[in-house]
Every structure is written in structure tokens, then in C-alpha cells.
TrEMBL record:
Protein name: Flagellar protein G
Highest taxon of the lineage: Archaea
Cited InterPro entries: Flagellin/pilin_N_arc (IPR013373), Pilin_N_archaeal (IPR012859)
Domain Archaeal Type IV pilin N-terminal: 4-79
Species: Nanobsidianus stetteri
Pfam families reported for this sequence: Pilin_N
């Protein structure tokens, strides 16, 4: 009985095709990873102070841009993590219509010294800014904001350490 093998030419073509396919997969992954890292290059903030109201879920977060780049305001998110383990990224909402459907949302970002809004603008380096947000405590199944943790995100990546509400 004579066993036939794949010809060397066909074997070479198959190996080249597999190499090209694997290379395309690696390039696709690396492109997404690198672009995500570059968009956050130099972005870092420090949460200085948080004031909150347990009766209505309003939170004011005083933040400083300590990174080496300006921040595009509309790309900021705040993550709210409640004491019962539920967590939600809270977007900037410019339309009042969507607010009733969200568990949490940011409704304004301002310069605390002048009161001017940073919405649709940029936050300069070393600047203080105030993030005003609302948390629907019923959506999280909590009665108090105490013990919850706040994080600031930029382009969906964390740029602050957590700040626990006391």
C-alpha cells in the first residue's frame, strides 16, 4: 500500500496562507489596542472632593486635570459603584429626554471659579473642574450613597483612583 502525501508546493501555499491569516489577526488586535492607549496618553485626574445628597441622588465631584493633556469633556464618564456591588458607567447627557431612563448620568461639567460650562469643549491641564451628576438610587437598590465609589473614565478607560463616599 502506497501512502500519498501533500505535494511540497501545496504544503508551502497552505503554510503561507496560515501565516498571513495569523498576521492579519495580530495586526487587527494590535491596531485597536494601540489606538485605545494613544487616545488616553497623558490623561489623568485626581478627585479632590465629593459632595452628595442622599435625598435626591445628586453628586458634585471636584476634580483636577493632573495629566499632561487637555481633556475633551464629552468623552468623560463617571463610574458609580454602589455598596451592593452594582456598578454603572454614567455618561454625559445633553438631552433632558434620556435622563429618566438612565440609572445615572452627568448633567454638567463646569469651571468652579467662573461657573462656565465645559460641555462641548476641553479642560486645560492643571485645571479644576466640577462634575455634576445624578444617581437614581432605586435603580441600584440602595437607600444611601454612603460607601459607594466613584471613578472618572476618559474614552472608556479609568483615569482616576477610586473615591469612596463617606
Amino acid at each position: 500500500m502506497k501512502i500519498k502525501a501533500v505535494s511540497p508546493l501545496i504544503a508551502t501555499i497552505i503554510l503561507i496562507a496560515l501565516t498571513v491569516a495569523l498576521g492579519a489577526i495580530i495586526v487587527g488586535w494590535a491596531k485597536g489596542y494601540v489606538s485605545n492607549q494613544v487616545s488616553n496618553l497623558g490623561a489623568q485626574v485626581e478627585i479632590l472632593q465629593v459632595n452628595y445628597n442622599n435625598s435626591n441622588g445628586n453628586i458634585s465631584i471636584l476634580v483636577q486635570n493632573i495629566g499632561s493633556t487637555q481633556l475633551i469633556t464629552n468623552n468623560l464618564l463617571v463610574e458609580f459603584s454602589s455598596t451592593n456591588g452594582k456598578s454603572q458607567k454614567c455618561p454625559l447627557v445633553l438631552s433632558g429626554n434620556a435622563q429618566g431612563y438612565l440609572a445615572c448620568y452627568v448633567y454638567n461639567i463646569t469651571d468652579p471659579s467662573s461657573g462656565n460650562s465645559y460641555i462641548n469643549g476641553t479642560i486645560p491641564q492643571n485645571s479644576l473642574f466640577l462634575i455634576n451628576m445624578t444617581v437614581n438610587m432605586n435603580s441600584f437598590g440602595i437607600t444611601s450613597l454612603s460607601g459607594s465609589t466613584i471613578y472618572v473614565y476618559y474614552y472608556d478607560n479609568p483615569i482616576s483612583t477610586g473615591y469612596t463616599l463617606s
